[in-house]
Predict the 3D structure of the following.
Amino acid sequence: MYGWLWHRLPGPAGVRALILTVAALAVLAACFLWVFPAVAPFMPFNETTVGE
Amino acid sequence: MSSETTTEPPAPTRREQRAAGRSRARDVFYGVVGVIGELLITLGVLLFAFLLWQLWWTDVVGNHAQAEIVAELPFEPVPTATPSAGAPVGPVIAPPRRDEPPVMAEPPHATTFATMQVPRWVGEPERPISQGTDRATVLDVLGVGHYEGTAMPGGLGNFAVAGHRTTYAKPFNRVEELQVGDPLILKTTDNVWYVYRVTSTQIVPPSAIDVIAPVPGDPGAVPTERMITLTTCHPMYSAQERFIVHGVLDYWAPTSDGIPAELAGGA
């Protein structure tokens, strides 16, 4: 999967590594901003109130 | 036997085909295993990122947001002593008042109406208290939440609040450090201090709703005391039980009189 991606990317190794790093950071940012906040309410360890 | 030899292609060609097919199948197999492996590694990295987000980033965002909320509350300035009379410069200590305290009406949902300071939790910031106890609009974003329908600060009955003990700025992280007699200091947007003192702590199952009853543990009773109750999760990082702190009002004071002695820094 990642090998295939590596071969499909243009440019020398340095450019490819840069593109992959930026892509990984973008994925991480999307997770922090949207994915994790959406998933968190389903996690079973953060209830603080009584009586539900 | 004889018919078989005539219908089948020559033996070497078939062996070659079989060998080629086998190696192709092996390529596909290892390809699939490789992709599954990479997906699992990716999933592991994402799970680690989720932990980082939940255990660290929600605190960073929460502390920043809650500090801003507290800074924007419309408090009147607290008087400071004038240096003229030879008295030490510094905050004025408000004389405790134990007459009938003013009690504000319940504000609309998700409105911040007070702050809480706990001298025992040295280093912890002043936390905002807002109306409501659902996570999406209050506890995860505004800090401490007031159980709707329970008493307001200073009121007869039970001023009950919930807060996170881990994650989302964890306002009640150090709840287990509280000891009987410790002050819990509230300041409302009506500019009144309410100083409560811890009377007991307990650990209950999540269903124990009577801890926030007007008389804790006795849901039907008519309250005669002005209580405070904090609820948070227990043990940490779990939703198995709830840690409960009960307290009772010691005194109140208008903020124009000064600050509570308990806040005057080690005094």
